[in-house]
Amino acid sequence: MAGETPIDEAWVLAAAQAAGLAIAPAHVAGVTMNLARIEQIARALNATELDVSDEIAPVWSP
Amino acid sequence: MVAVSNSSVTARTENVLADIRARDGAINAFVDITEARALAQARRVDAALAAGRDAGPLAGVPFAVKNLFDVKGLATLAGSKINRERPPAAADATLITRLEAAGAVLVGTLNMDEYAYGFSTENTHYGATRNPHRLGHVAGGSSGGSAAAVAAGLVPLTLGSDTNGSIRVPSSFCGVWGLKPTYGRLSRAGTFPFVNSLDHVGPFSQSLAGLAAAYDVMQGSDPLDPACRPPQVQFVSGTETRGIAGLRIARATGYFEDNAEAEVVARVKEACTRIGVTRTIEIPHAALARAAAFIITASESAQLHLANLKSRADDFEPLIRDRLLAGALIPASWYLQAQRVRRWCHRQLMEIFNSIDVILAPATPRPAQRIGQDTFTVRGIEMLARPNTGLLTQPISCIGLPVIAAPIGTLDTFNGLPVGMQIIAAPWREDLCFRVAGALEHAGAAAFIPLAGHS
Questions:
Q1: Model confidence over B184-234: pLDDT tens digits?
Q2: Which residues of chain B are within 8 Å of residue A37 when distances are taken between CB atoms?
Q3: What is the pTM of this model?
Q4: Strand, coil or helix: what is B33?
Q5: Residue B253 pLDDT > 80, yes or no?
Q6: How far is residue B22's CA from residue B1's CA, in Å, rounded to a whole number?
Q7: I need a surface site. Which of A60, B325, B358, B446 has the fewest CB within 10 A?
Q8: CA B200: distance to chain centroid?
């Protein structure tokens, strides 16, 4: 994840191009800020040690 | 909730419609008023009553729905501009059909955050819904119109949806009862999705008994919603008077105290004291569950709207457009890890229910903020208001637990605005939520909060 590659505008533009998403210049800063926030949140999840049995369910069944 | 007036259902419906037209301009809860349909249903109910037939447990009760529910003949807007181009719905959502079969009368559709992505119902296309208690404050969201319409007394019953807190947040902000059932309990068929693996639907009501009555008639499996697989129908009407003898109830500490203002926590403690709850418990990994919900929401919602994000991003609500675009760039590994952590959190939390039946926690970090307010403080920490209003609701809906949002009073230090409490139980145990809610109501610790001057 971001460890090596910080989320910045260049990262966002490259990812958007790969995804076929045209981001208007006026929105690049806002998208970058939002994705950086998401990345911060994802860090905590990726630091969680899980077992192989901790798998997602095709249909959630509480 | 069932009306007992001697006047006809048709006459009462006409009065409700006139009241909405007269008063909703200040609140902006309604988007559409379904007058012809409402009067036709009212006449059917009157005819049934005149013929001596059972008109249903909700005979003549007016209700309205968040405008992500399909209403036959109307485009399902989901708070968006883009959806105006959709053809009118060919059929009603399952829950509307069930409520009307019970005699209820649909009078309109209600405002919301665009595509349910928000906690404030500040909608650029349709205007902000105002909190009936303080018109300069938000109603909460994303089912803000649903809560505001009930709080203002325009209708006694509404439907909303809750993905990350969208029933519980506006219930808390507007001082009304709300129910987010277990994931998969109520059918979402005929509703516009937000995050399929997190979406729930449920009712708002002025009264706890009304909440139970509406919930009861909406229950039942539905092949049109693959997630709707309740183990059985479990009627709850009357359970709110059973008391709480034998129930193991605890107040949530840790994360749920740290992320709520002191006055809110004090009000929750006071409510607990009123019903004799002294036990406390720390819900494990609540912050991780919230983080998982955040990532899943961002990724699934962006994927849902990807085609429009590619072709017409400027037609989205400005308050969510950048969040959706960012969600479209989330690597698959983050999303999958979020789903795995969700499973892990579920397993951890289920262990709590071996020793506890019901958990009580604040519903929102603080009462409603002002319309247009971008940040607020919680325990002295300034944070963005819109993404953080669901701090206390997201960990619970992430794993699909049933919750009643109970109105537990107003706070003088926050302009006299209401605040709510979550009553949380194990999956499929909505009945326990109703028992505790009933005890709180009986003890005077929870009740619908009338507008000032209308008590």
A1: 999 999 999 999 999 999 999 999 999 999 999 999 999 999 999 899 999
A2: 387
A3: 0.96
A4: strand
A5: yes
A6: 23
A7: A60
A8: 9
* CA-based nearest residue to B396, from B162, B115, B185: B162
Q: How far is CA A54 from the centre of its chain?
A: 21
Asked if B183's CB is within 8 angstroms of A62's CB, the reply is: yes
Cα–Cα distance, B451 to B175 (Å, whole number): 9
Residues B326 and A35 sit within 8 Å (Cβ to Cβ) = yes
Q: Where are the alpha helices (DSSP H) in B59-187?
A: 94-101, 144-151, 168-174
Give the torsion through C-alpha atoms of B86, B92, B94, B97, to 10 deg: 170
Burial B360-395 (b: 16+ CB within 10 A, else e): bbbbbbbbbbebeeeebebeeeeeebbbbbbbbbbb
Please indicate if any CB of chain A lies within 8 Å of the CB of B334.
yes
Inter-chain CB proximity A62 and B344 less than 8 Å: no
The ipTM, to two decimals, is 0.90
**Domains delineated in chain B:** 9-442 (3.90.1300.10)
Residues of B annotated catalytic, as ranges: 66, 142, 166
Q: Do B346 and A62 touch (CB under 8 A)?
A: yes
d(CA B183, CA B293): 14
- What's the longest Cα–Cα distance across chain A? 44
Do B345 and B292 meet the contact criterion of CB atoms below 8 Å apart?
A: yes
Nearest-CA distance B115 → chain A (Å): 18
- Chain B's closest residue to A49, CA to CA, is B341
Residues contacting residue B320 through CB under 8 Å, at least 6 positions apart: B113, B114, B115, B117, B118
Of B226, B306, B323, the CB nearest to A34: B323
Query: Which distant-in-sequence residues (6+ apart) come within 8 Å of B402 by Cβ?
Result: B179, B180, B181, B182, B185, B424, B425, B427, B428, B429, B430, B433
Torsion sign across C-alpha atoms B63, B69, B75, B81? positive
Q: Within an 8 Å CB–CB cutoff, is residue B314 touching chain A?
A: yes
Measure the CA–CA gap between B393 and B166, rounded to whole angstroms.
9
Alpha helices, DSSP H, located in B275-327: 286-304, 306-312, 318-327
Q: How far away is chain B from the Cα of A16, in angstroms, using its nearest Cα?
A: 7
* Bridge partners (DSSP) listed for residue B384: B375
CA distance A41 to chain B (A): 6
H or E segment to which residue B86 belongs: none
Alpha helices in chain A (DSSP H): 9-19, 25-46
Angle (CA) B364 B367 B369, round 5°? 110
> Would you put residue B123 in left (φ > 0), alpha (ψ -120 to 50) or beta?
beta
Would you write out chain A's pLDDT as a tens digit for each of its 62 residues? 545 568 999 999 999 999 999 999 999 999 999 999 999 999 999 999 998 888 775 555 66
